[in-house]
Amino acid sequence: MDAYSGTYDIRWADLDANGHVHYSAFIDAAADLRYRFFAERGFPPEKFLKIGVGAIYGSVNARFLREVLVGEKISITYTLTGLSPKGTRWKIHHDIFKSNGKKAVVLDLEGVVFDLISRKPTQPSPELLDVFHQVPHATTFEVMPEGRFVG
Q: pTM for this one?
């Protein structure tokens, strides 16, 4: 299955003191893309809040391959590389491309669905788990153990 993708315009506020795009700008842009994916499938950010769950990262692995400049429009892909059977744990992959089509950043994230009241990992609702299953699966997709989240 093809990856879900979208674009993001690099803004002045995305730059660090060296004039480079701050690493967190890429992570935030990728998060916006994921929320867009869920919103398009009937699960906007306010619905996450209404049912009292969110997502937290346990690990973020970023590889920076090329410089991205202010004003550049980047393209971001989104694939699911792992999911536990009950949907508590997940792993995702993003490729970020410069406007010229060259890969600039690779992001791999692992996390859990997080209960906003208990402040602990939790299972997603059946409706939310259904949306997770709609995320395009990477060719390297793996079924993750439910086990305890290490983050």
A: 0.93
Sequential DSSP letters for 56-122: EEEEEEEEE-S---TTPEEEEEEEEEEE-TTSSEEEEEEEEE-TTS-EEEEEEEEEEEEETTT-SB-
pLDDT in tens, the chain (151 residues): 589 999 999 999 999 888 889 999 999 999 999 999 999 999 999 999 999 999 999 999 999 999 999 999 999 999 999 999 999 999 999 999 999 999 999 999 999 999 999 999 999 999 999 999 999 999 999 999 986 655 4
Domains, the chain, in order of start with CATH, read: 4-143 (3.10.129.10)
Could you tell me the two tokens for 78?
Answer: 């989104």
